[in-house]
Amino acid sequence: MTAGRERLEAAFAHETATAVDRDGRLVLVTEGFERLTGIDCRPLIGSAGPFPWWGEPARQRAQADFLLSGEAEKLGVRTVSARLRLADGQLVEARLHHEPVYLSGEDRADFHVVVYSVESLQESERDRLLRFEAAVQRISQALAEVGIGRVRAPGSAAWHGNLDQLTPREREVLSLLLEGKRVAEIGGELFISQHTARNHVRSVYTKLGVHSHLELLRRAREGGS
User: Fold this and answer.
1) Which of 146, 199, 205, 206 qualifies as a FRET site for 38, CA 20 to 30 Å off?
2) CATH number for the domain harbouring residue 206
3) Looking at 156, 171, 188, which one is the last position of a domain?
4) Residues 206 and 98 placed together within one structural domain of the fold
């Protein structure tokens, strides 16, 4: 996989990113990520989490398992929120974009790349989303330039309902729902009121054609059918 790691490094050199292999072992940490966190990550290459930048280890272990399992991609979930722990112990809110990379032609992704965007209190929600979406576009272009491209997992199940209709915020809500979070917890995680969180949940249900949290989880387990 040495050649694969070199292609990853070329694609993500200018991003704030980390990458793990299909077994969850750390294979790549960019200079931008080390600058952001202040953590010397090189000794951690080859190890699996929990990692020192996980601000909420239990939650981020669940997120990592969700991403590595392939279920996130089947459901169209590429964006989640998490807290990063910096070298000085400070916790910062971040938006994470997950990019599975296929090099061997197998059904499982060979690498899982996570690109981090730290949220600034001085930015509006619209500005944060625009900045994040611009980063995602740069990533797609960089992957194409090194011959990796953005490829769906072969045989991925299609979710009934149009995932493309979900807004970035609704995708965050969907990710939290799939972790088993309730409305109150979602509001707390995303720093929004319970009323706003409830409206987002209803919108997600409507767009995905489900009527309850239990139905959403059941459909997820069944691959969206």
Assistant:
1) 146
2) 1.10.10.10
3) 156
4) no
Per residue in 2-49, pLDDT (tens digit) is 666 676 677 677 778 898 988 899 988 989 899 999 999 989 999 998
Final residue before a domain boundary, out of 134, 156, 178: 156
Same domain, residue pair 126 and 218: no
Max Cα distance, the chain (Å): 49
**Residue 198: domain span:** 158-225
How many of the other CB atoms lie within 10 Å of CB of 42? 9
pTM of the complete model: 0.61
What is the number of alpha carbons within 13 Å of residue 81 lying toward its C-beta?
Answer: 21
